Amino acid sequence: SYELTQPPSASVSPGQTARITCSGDALAKKYAHWYQQKSGQAPVLVIYADNKRPSGIPERFSGSNSGTTATLIISGAQVEDEAAYYCFSKDNSDLGVFGGGTRLTVL
Amino acid sequence: QVQLVESGGGVVQPGGSLRLSCAASGFKFTDYGMHWVRQVPGKGLEWVAFIRYDGNNKYYADSAKGRFSISRDNFKITLYLQMDNLRVGDTAVYYCAKDGVVGGYGLGNIDYWGQGVLVTVSS
User: Nearest CA of chain A to the CA of B15: how many Å?
Assistant: First the structure.
């Protein structure tokens, strides 16, 4: 079955730039969306359609999609950005699929 | 504001059935597709199923196909997930979620989530 591959963990110092990748063959033709999930809470959409930011999401969150890799970028990461991040897209049958998640540590 | 409130979770024995409900408010329910997503505690998110805004198209993950059935009642503004022949591996928090594309033919993105309901399959 189709998979989206994310690194299990990442770390960044406050104020630095965090980059989280999501790899999958179908990303060349499908949008990537990104979700932030803090402990004990429901996920929150932070980037949709590769690089669009929902209202209320800080400008430090951005995204890109090139070839088969989508990237979530947090410019000037804050301590409150510490969370798990998941990419979401579709396979070639248009079924939904999540990446395995990346736990971001900001310290 | 968008609100999605799940109900119907609980403890069920392997092989049993359960129906989850999701009451929606704060948006025009008939314009949007809806999803179910689950998460084993401490693990990642798994997409389960999607139903188009008019109920005419349904999509299922392989893990749900043949055992789970997604449906909606656009008059009651409620989403459902009928789960049959449950397995221990179906134990998870189940989230109801709204698609972000108005009138979308298939899956778009998920823009709002409920708080989730716990389903435990255990003997």
Answer: 25
Q: What is the C-alpha to C-alpha distance for residues B74 and A84, in angstroms, rounded to an integer?
A: 34
DSSP codes, A33-94: EEEEE-TTS--EEEEBTTTB--TTS-TTEEEEEETTEEEEEETT--GGG-EEEEEEEE-TTS
Question: Is the distance from CB of B37 to CB of B45 less than 8 angstroms?
Answer: yes
Q: Which residues of A touch B114 (CB under 8 A)?
A: 42
> Measured between CB atoms, does B32 come within 8 Å of chain A?
no
Per residue in A3-21, pLDDT tens?
999 999 999 999 999 999 9
- Record the tokens describing residue A56, joined without a space: 């209320």
Q: What is the pLDDT of residues A17-37, one digit of tens each?
A: 999 999 999 998 999 999 999
Q: In Å, how far are A74, B31, B94 from B47, measured between CA atoms?
A: 25, 21, 10
